[in-house]
Amino acid sequence: MKLYNYFRSSAAYRVRIALALKGLPYDYLSVHLGKGRQYDADFGAVSPQNLVPVLELDDGQRLVQSLAIIEYLDETRPQPALLPSDPIGRARVRSLAQSIACEIHPINNLRVLNYLTKTLGVSDDQRLAWYRHWVLTGFQALEARLAGESRTGTCCHGDEPGLADICLVPQVANARRFAVDLDAFPTIVRIDAHCRSLLAFQQAAPENQPDSE
Amino acid sequence: MKLYNYFRSSAAYRVRIALALKGLPYDYLSVHLGKGRQYDADFGAVSPQNLVPVLELDDGQRLVQSLAIIEYLDETRPQPALLPSDPIGRARVRSLAQSIACEIHPINNLRVLNYLTKTLGVSDDQRLAWYRHWVLTGFQALEARLAGESRTGTCCHGDEPGLADICLVPQVANARRFAVDLDAFPTIVRIDAHCRSLLAFQQAAPENQPDSE
C-alpha cells in the first residue's frame, strides 16, 4: 500500500496510527501542504478534493477520507480491532471520533485558516483566537463525555486504543502546537499521554515522519 | 425511540431520512436552534455538545453524531441496507458522506456563521461568500467523483439510496437556501432530484416537520 501523506496533516496522522496499530507496512508519499503541493495537477488527479490522506491499495484503487480509510482497514484486517464489537459501543466510539473529525478539525483546517487571513483579512491574533475557540468548545464537550461515561478506560473506550484515540491524539498535538491551555481537560490529557506511550502512536507521530521539518 | 430534532438542522435531517428509509417510528422532540434552545441547561444535560440530533433509545441510552447514529441504525436494523456489503464499496460510500459531513457542513454550521458575524464582524456579503465558497469547493470535488466513478448510479452508489445520498440531499437543500448556483454540478442535481422523489426523503424534508416555520 501507499499513503499520500504529510507529516503535519492530522487526518493523515490518524491513518498512520491505524496502520501502525495493525502492523501494516506502506510507502510514504509526501505531499507538502505547506507549499501547496496538494493543488498540483498530478495530485489533483489522485485526489479531486486536494486533501491528504489518500490510501492507494496494491491494485491501484484509491481510498479517501481518513475515517472511511480506517474503517476499511478495520473491516479487512480485523486485528487488533479499532471498534468495539457491540453496536452501542461502536456508536459511542464513532461519535467520539466524529466529535473531533466533524466538529473541531474541519473548522481549523489550514485552508480555512488561510481563508480567514487572505480573504477576510483577519489579524494573527483573531486567527489564533478562532483556532482556540473551536478546540476549547469541542474539548469541553469531549471532556464531559470522557469523564462522565462509564466505558471510558485507560483509552477513550476501555483499555485498548481505537478509532476515538486515533482522532484524539492528533487533535491534542494540534492544540499544543497552537498553545491551547489544556488544564481544564484532565481526562483528555491523561488518555493522550497513555496513547503516546505506545509504540504505534510514536511510529505515526509527525516528528518521526520522513518529511518532518 | 425519540429524536431531538430541528427541522432545519441538516444533521438531524440526515437521521430523519435514515429512520424513514427503514420505516422506524419515533417521537419528534424539537430543539429550536434559531432561538438558541440548544444552549438551555436541560438540553445541555442531554447533549454536552449542544448539538442536534440526539437519538434516545427506548432504554434511555442516547446516541449523538448523525453518522454514528445512522451506522448504529444500519447495524441493528439492517434492511434496507444504507451501506454496500463489500468493504471497497463501504469505503466509497462513507468517503462520499464524509466529504460532505467533514468537509462542507461543519464550516458552514450556524455557530460558525455566527462567530464570523458576531465575533469577527464580517459583513453579510462576506458571510454569504464564505458559505458559497465552501459549498462550491466541496461540490466541485464531489461532482468530479460522482460523474467519473463507475459505481455511481441513479443514486450516489448504485440505484438504491444510502448513506451518501442521506448526506447529499440536506446539503443541496442548504445550498439552495443560500442561492448557490448549482449549474456546474449536474450529477449532484440529478441524484438529489431522484432522491427527493422518494417517499422517505419527502417524509424527512424540513418543510414537512412539526416545527417547520
Kindly describe this structure.
2 copies of one chain form a homodimer. Chain A is of the alpha+beta class and 213 residues long. Chain A folds into 2 domains: 2-80, Glutaredoxin; 87-200, Up-down Bundle (Glutathione S-transferase Yfyf (Class Pi), Chain A, domain 2). Helices cover 52% and strands 7% of the residues of chain A. Chain A is built from 9 helices and 4 strands; from the N terminus they run E-H-E-H-E-E-H-H-H-H-H-H-H. Chain A has helices spanning 10-21, 41-46, 66-76, 87-101, 110-119, 124-148, 163-177, 186-196, 199-204; strands at 2-5, 27-30, 54-56, 62-64. Chain A has a 4-stranded mixed sheet with strand order 2-1-3-4, covered by helices on one side. In chain A, helix 1 (10-21) links the parallel strand 1 and strand 2 (27-30). In chain A, helix 1 packs across helix 7 (163-177) and helix 7 (163-177) crosses helix 8 (186-196). The longest helix of chain A is centred in the middle third of the chain and has 25 residues, at 124-148. The model of chain A has no long low-confidence stretch (mean pLDDT 95). Chain A binds chain B through residues 48-51, 61, 63-65, 67-69, 71-72, 75-76, 87-88, 90-92, 94-95, 98-99, 101-103, 105-107, 112, 115-116, 119-120, 122, 126, 129-130, 133, 138, 140-141, 144-145, and chain B through 48-51, 61, 63-65, 67-69, 71-72, 75-76, 87-88, 90-92, 94-95, 98-99, 101-103, 105-107, 112, 115-116, 119-120, 122, 126, 129-130, 133, 138, 140-141, 144-145.
